[in-house]
Amino acid sequence: MSIQNNLQAVKELIDNRALLVAVSKTKPNEDLMEAYNAGQRVFGENKVQELTTKYETLPKDIEWHMIGHLQSNKVKYIAPFVSLIHGVDSEKLLKTINKEGKKNNRKIPCLLQVHIAEEETKFGFTEEELLSMLSQELLSSLEYIELKGVMGMATYTNDTDQIKKEFATLKQVFDKLKSSVFASTDSFTEISMGMSGDYQLAIEEGSTMVRVGSSIFGARDYH
User: Fold this and answer.
1) Are 35 and 7 in contact (CB under 8 A)?
2) Residue 222 included in any domain
């Protein structure tokens, strides 16, 4: 199966119900160009250095999403061009992104990462942490950030009931934030959840954005 055929198959399954972020981490530019030539324009990377290198060498109409854990000291490298940061998981990171947005005179779109998995290793806020952190004072200080929604990662398990439950939890957190803190924020619309193994479940539970890698590019190359 070619990347083009894989991409087509994934798009048919998604059926325009969610935005497809093609997770291209560790993949060479040739693979990305094959997807690009088949019409894909949104790509997700999890390492800042790889993201900036690909941004510099690939077509400029690509939307780059930072989907991995982002360290505050690395924000400056992607602030000029990143289309969306998926994994904002601390107040410190929010403030750093805002500062770098100001330097680049652009609003940087971000998602708030919510911890929904049972695994301890996944990053993210709890619902309580978000509700206590997101004061009007903080939000009005973040002039160079556009908070567009939430992101979460389900537990790595074959138990579909558990995965569905975790996705439903993220949707509930989104709904609660949307009806309270972001009631008057039109741009707060996104729920980024679902990967190659579970994106169809995620879409059923309300995902607006899925991060799919191996179903498009084949198994990952671990460097």
Assistant:
1) yes
2) no
DSSP string across 127-171: HHHHHHH--HHHHHH-TTEEEEEEE----SSS-HHHHHHHHHHHH
DSSP structural state of residue 18: S
For residue range 65-120, list pLDDT tens digits in order: 999 999 999 999 999 999 999 999 999 999 999 999 999 999 999 999 999 998 77
How many other CB atoms are found less than 10 A from the CB of residue 125?
22
Q: What is the CATH number of the domain that holds 92?
A: 3.20.20.10
Let me know if residue 63 belongs to a domain: yes
C-alpha distances (whole Å) from 136 to each of 90, 107, 131, 140, 142 are 17, 18, 11, 6, 10
Instruction: Report if residue 148 sits inside a domain.
Output: yes
Question: DSSP per residue over 72-137, as a string?
Answer: GGGHHHHTTT-SEEEEE--HHHHHHHHHHHHHTTSPEEEEEEB--SSSTTS--B-HHHHHHH--HH
Number of domains within the chain: 1
Q: Which domain holds residue 118?
A: 3-215
* Cα atoms in the Cβ-side hemisphere of radius 13 Å centred on 8: 8
CA distance 171 to 206: 6
Q: Which two tokens stand for residue 75?
A: 């924000």
The whole model's pTM is what?
0.95
State the residue for tokens 């952190």.
133
- Does the residue 223 lie in any domain? no
- The Cα–Cα gap between 14 and 134 comes to 32
